[in-house]
Amino acid sequence: MLYGQVSINEIKILKWFFDQLSDLDVTLHYVVLYAKPDTLTARLHQRGDAQYIHRSLFLRNKLMASPVNEPFLLDTDGKKPDELAEEIIKNAVFRIQG
Fold this sequence. Notes:
alpha+beta; Rossmann fold; two-stranded antiparallel sheet; 6 strands; globular; P-loop_NTPase; Thymidylate kinase-like domain-containing protein
């Protein structure tokens, strides 16, 4: 079932996380990492996983098109893993407090 462009399942999953964390002293960082299609394709070729290009691009586009994910998108192009980790930890947008 879709509500606009957001599926009810997507909303239920995020709500489930909120509900599960509400009584705990924990922090969940929710981030949707993405790269440009050319970057994603090059990475898959480099790893020898060219057979996954079509599916990876499909999933990338689906995740990026979801309004539920929009505030949590983080572009990985040109960033090192330690830079991404620092941005995720420091940016309150990605922090879901219980």
